[in-house]
Structure formats: structure tokens, C-alpha cells
Design brief:
This protein has 140 residues and is mostly helical. The protein has three helices and no strands.
């Protein structure tokens, strides 16, 4: 009995440790989520500030030298994005046209399919039909 009590005590301590570790993990997970939300908020603010500075530089044409080169680089990236979007649209159009062509080819092939109807006659029916064909010849 004493070995069972020892086992029960150790199991109880072990379960207590699992519960404690689980609650610690939940708490650290909540903290990490909060940190992530705060970092996203800061990133959004930096984005807004940067966009305002960029717009101001382009509208007024006045900017410090270190920002002017970055604004030019933004313009280059936006031009590249526009070109890539044009390529993407052209590729989509080509794919759609190719898909339409394949569809037309499939429809044409389906129209050309031939259906063969096979009927099987009994030997007795064949004999009767053969006799019917022979009778008119003998009457002539």
C-alpha cells in the first residue's frame, strides 16, 4: 500500500507541474499576442508617416537629399509593380484564351464522336428474315 501512496503522491505532483506549466504557457502566449499587436500598430504608424513624407516630397518637390533618393527608389518600385501587373494581366488573358480554345477543341471532338448501335438477333429471327427475303425472288 505504501508504494501505491508514493506513486499517487508523485503523480499528484507531476499533474500539478503540468497544470502550472500549462498556465504559464497560456500567459506567455497572451503576452506574445499583445506584443505582436503593439508592433503592428507601430509599423502602421511608421507606414503612415513615411507615406506622408513621400507625398509631401512629391507634391512640394522639397526634400532632404537622403529622402529624395528613397523617394526616387519608391517611384522605380511602383513602376516595376505596374509593369509586372501588366504582364500578369496579359498572362491571365492568354491563359483564358487558351482555355477557351481547348474548350472549343473538346466540343469539336465531342461532335465528331460516332455512336454504333449493335442489335443482337436470335437465330430463329435470322432464319425467318432470310426466308422472307428468299420468297419474293421465287415469285418472280
Amino acid at each position: 500500500m505504501s508504494s501505491f501512496k508514493t506513486f499517487e503522491t508523485k503523480a499528484g505532483h507531476l499533474m500539478g507541474n503540468f497544470v502550472q506549466k500549462g498556465s504559464e504557457l497560456v500567459e506567455t502566449g497572451k503576452i506574445r499576442l499583445s506584443i505582436g499587436r503593439e508592433e503592428r500598430a507601430v509599423d502602421e504608424l511608421f507606414y503612415k508617416i513615411g507615406e506622408a513624407v513621400y507625398d509631401n516630397c512629391r507634391k512640394n518637390g522639397v526634400s532632404p537629399n537622403y529622402i529624395a533618393s528613397d523617394c526616387d527608389e519608391v517611384d522605380e518600385h511602383r513602376t516595376n509593380i505596374a509593369l509586372l501587373n501588366a504582364k500578369l494581366n496579359a498572362a491571365r488573358t492568354a491563359t483564358e484564351e487558351m482555355g477557351a480554345g481547348v474548350k472549343q477543341e473538346k466540343e469539336a471532338v465531342q461532335e465528331k464522336e460516332v455512336t454504333i448501335d449493335i442489335t443482337i438477333e436470335d437465330k430463329k429471327d435470322k432464319k425467318d428474315k432470310k426466308e422472307e427475303r428468299e420468297e419474293p425472288k421465287s415469285q418472280e
